[in-house]
Amino acid sequence: MTVPTGRRERKKAATRQKIADAALRLFLERGYDAVGIRDVAAEADVAVTTLFSHFASKEALVFEQDEDFEQRLTRAVTGRAAHEPLVPALRREIQALVRHCTADSAAPIWRMIDASPALREYEESMRLRHAESLATAIAADPGLSVTPTASRAIARFVIDAYSLAREAADPQAAVGEIFQMIEAAWDVTCPSGDSAGTATGTAGP
Q1: Contact by Cβ (8 Å): 44, 18
Q2: What is the mean pLDDT of the chain?
Q3: Quick check: 113 and 59 in contact, CB under 8 A?
Q4: CA–CA distance, 61 with 96 (Å, rounded to integer)
Q5: Burial class (CB in 10 A: 0-12, 13-18, 19+), 137
Q6: What backbone torsions phi and psi does residue 170 show, to the nearest 5 degrees?
């Protein structure tokens, strides 16, 4: 989660985290469908209106790192070092995200998600949104000469890599296998050689 700098931002982030922690605790104890928004607000000791100021829906409570996930992916494009090729930068970020989501502590959460049609539908819409944000970042990179369609295709491959690797018996090996295919597709899409390290990336902060 991105660390806020100002006092007001830190307080807001702490409240958000408290609500998310309370929600997850109740969902895992009682089951997702058995817990209502008012239950979560009471557990977190906040008003329902406060809860909705941080989370737009009940489903969003489960995916509280949604925004951070999206920002990390786009920063892998916009914040990579000068001359760093695109595909390795994206692979490194996906590897880190997969490592996080396949930790033993995450297993009960994914079982809950897989058992809920509403959460699976929300996750799918979230993945599509992440893919669009990533595609926008790729298309806007001045060092990459790719069409919007190619940017969207590569972005969807990257987002799917995360989902497929999460479900694999060996997640990290799956990331490597999938990114070999992504890199091959990128070599065809961007024959200038970015994936080999010859294209100019966007300078980091």
Answers
A1: yes
A2: 89
A3: no
A4: 22
A5: buried
A6: -125, 90
Q: Determine the Cα–Cα distance for residues 162 and 156; give it in Å rounded to an integer.
A: 10
pTM higher than 0.90 for the full model? Answer: no
Q: Which residue has the higher pLDDT, 191 or 55?
A: 55
Mean pLDDT value across residues 94-103: 92
Say if CB 116 and CB 32 are below 8 A apart.
yes
- Exposed/middle/buried for residue 79 (C-beta within 10 Å: 0-12, 13-18, 19+): middle
Complete DSSP assignment for the chain? -PPP-SHHHHHHHHHHHHHHHHHHHHHHHH-GGG--HHHHHHHHT--HHHHHHH-SSHHHHHTTTHHHHHHHHHHHHHTSPTT--HHHHHHHHHHHHHHHHTSGGGHHHHHHHHH-HHHHHHHHHHHHHHHHHHHHHHHH-TT----HHHHHHHHHHHHHHHHHHHHSSSHHHHHHHHHHHHHHHHHHH-TTTGGGT-S--PPP-
State how far the Cα of 149 lies from the Cα of 18, in Å rounded to an integer: 40
Distance of alpha carbon 120 from alpha carbon 199, whole angstroms: 38
What pLDDT, on a 0 to 100 scale, did the predictor assign at position 196? 39
What pLDDT does 144 receive? Answer: 87
Q: Is the pLDDT of residue 15 over 60?
A: yes
Q: What is the pLDDT of residues 136-191, one digit of tens each?
A: 999 999 888 889 999 999 999 999 999 999 999 999 999 999 999 999 999 888 76
